[in-house]
Structures are given as structure tokens and as C-alpha cells.
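Ticket #4471: structure output looks truncated?

Reporter: J.K.
Steps to reproduce: submitted the chain below (292 residues) through the standard prediction queue, then opened the result file.
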Amino acid sequence: MTPTRYFLSRIAHTLGIHRRNQRMSDAASETHLLRDAEAYLGAMIWKKVENIEPLSSSYWNLRKLSQEQESISSELASCQEKLNKAHEDRAALLNTVSEPEQKLLTEKAGIVAELGTLSARRDEIVAAAKEIRKSYEGLKVKSEVLANQSGGSQPAAAEIDKINTSLSQLKERFTALKAERTRISEEIIKGDHKINELAEQIRTFRKSQQENASKAIQSIGDANKDISTLRAEYGILDTRMSQLHAEIGKHVSRNLSGDTACAEAVKDHRGLVDVMQALRKSITLNYRLADM
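Returned output as attached by the reporter:
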């Protein structure tokens, strides 16, 4: 609100044109801008007002609050570092396989592959043993039939002897296959036991990792809690400092002409002070027009 606009609005007011709500709204907006400007100015110059008597208390309070804020900022940085470390530890524990666990997994995979080979060999032995048994039973029947039909003739006796030799050889082969199958079955049983042992060790490793991950999660929760508390404390300090900044900005900008210390403090911010003075005049004129 400039003097010219005030004059014109005053004339309109005498003619019955009232815009009280508009004037009140304008005054409220300008007051808000003025308060922001006072706080901003105070934040810029508070370190220069130590020797201004009315502002000495505000200055030293701000010195104290600034130190407390610096301390809280340091604690926040430390807590944030702990939080980041806890997140990294948790991710490493949950998303990667440790070297000891990898060795166990590799050993287990090797045994599983070996057991697969042994099982295939055992199946081959069983199949071969079945063929031998079939051949053995066929030759045995043939020997019995020849014995019954030969009547003790020399050719038949020679043939029966040949069959008995073959039967003996088949029996030896069957016995050897049976022994090999037994050996392989024992190796498979041992391999199964070893796999169970390795699986238990792997479960133990993973349980330990999960426990460590739980500790990391607890650390994350604690760090977040500490950070929230510190941020709340920082916010309280920031609010109090803003109030002190506003007090300093208000005093200095109002006493600029009569106090050389105030003038010296704001010499680098005269443009802002001029705007603030214009806002005060405009607020006063808007209240006059609103019949306040």
C-alpha cells in the first residue's frame, strides 16, 4: 500500500466503497512477510549485535543455542553413519553367501554328483546280475533236461560238464557283482550321512547369519529412534533461534535511524531494511482503511 493508493482508497471510502475484508487480508499477508523478513535479517546479522545493549541477552542466547545445535548436528552425523553401516551389514548378511558356507555348498554338490554316479553304477550292476541270473537258470534247466534224456551217453556227459563249467563261472560273476553292489550301497549310505551333516552345518551357518542380521535390524531401529529424537531437539532449538532472530531483526530495523550500532549492523542489508519499513507503512495504512 503506497501513499497514493491510500489516498485514492480513502476517497473511495468516503464515497461508501468499503473493502474492509480485502484490507485486513492485505495487512495480514504483509505482516507475515514482515515477520519473515525480520527473522531473516536477524539470522544474517546476529553475530554483529553483541554490543547493542537491548540485544545482548538475545546474542548470548543465540551463541549458546548455536553450540547446542552444532553438538546435535555432530551426534546426528554419527547416528546416520551407524545407520548406514547397519544397513550395509544387514544387506551383506542377507544377500551374500559367506566363504565357509560356500565351501560347504561346494562340497555338498560334489558329494551329490558322486552319489549320482554311484547310483547309476549300482543300477548297471543290478541289471547285469539279472541277466546272469536269467542265463544261470536257463543253463541249469538245460543241464537237467540233458541229464534226463542222455541215459549216460558220453556226448551228453561232455555237454553237461561244459554247462556246469559255465554255471560255475556265472555264479562267480554273480557273487562278484553282488559284492560290488554291497560296497556301492555302503558308499551311498556314507554319502547320504555326509550330506546330512553338511546340510546341518549349512543350516547352522545360515541361522548365525540370520541372528547377526537381527542384531543389525535392532541397530537400525535404535539408530532411527536416536535420529528422530535428535531431529526433534534440533527443531526445538531452531524454533527458539528463529524467535531470537526475529527479535533482533525487528529491533535493529526499527531503531536504524537513532542508533549507530544498529545502522552499522545492517549496513550490508539496507535494501531489505527499506522493504521492511515500506511493509510497516503499508500495514498501518491498510489497518486505517479497515477502520482499525
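Triage note (M.O.): checked the attachment and the full C-alpha cell line is present. The helical segments are 3-14, 20-45, 56-95, 99-150, 154-254, 260-265, 270-289.
Status: closed, working as intended.
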